[in-house]
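Supplementary Methods, section 5.1.

A reviewer requested that the exact input to the structure prediction be made available. We therefore reproduce it here, unchanged from the version used in the analyses.
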Amino acid sequence: WRNHMKSSTMIATVDYGLALPQMIAEAAFNWANPDITSEWFPVVGIGKKKYRFKLYEPKQYISSEDAVVMMAKDGFPAARHEAGLAFAKAFPGEQLKRPIALLGSSAEVRGSRDVVCLSRDGAKRFLSLSHWTSVWHDAWGFLGAQEVSGA
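The structure derived from this sequence is encoded token-by-token as follows.
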């Protein structure tokens, strides 16, 4: 998988002072799953924090657990939804290249453990949910987020 990582440094700031609906609105998706709510995906953090992002593209089928381990071994914990929303706002074109799973936070939504995903349909950007238990197709990417410092 090392040969399939985005190597350019991508940095964005998460403003934990924003409510989840504001974070979603600022990322300007064409559609957001209405189940992505503060009830299931609370904003956890204080102030503003800067993150360095790395996109992992294993180009193979992989479980959520294996993807999280892969990123952690490389020093990039799996991105939580707050960091993923800041990434989507700063780099809107990235999710048009491939769907991106944010495996750093999950919630029991309507009976299944789900994770937030940056997905697409053509040129339309979606904020969606997928099951943690998925075996991810080889076209998926995974976002790692490493805290740089307070913003």
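The chain has four helices and nine strands. These observations are discussed further in the main text.
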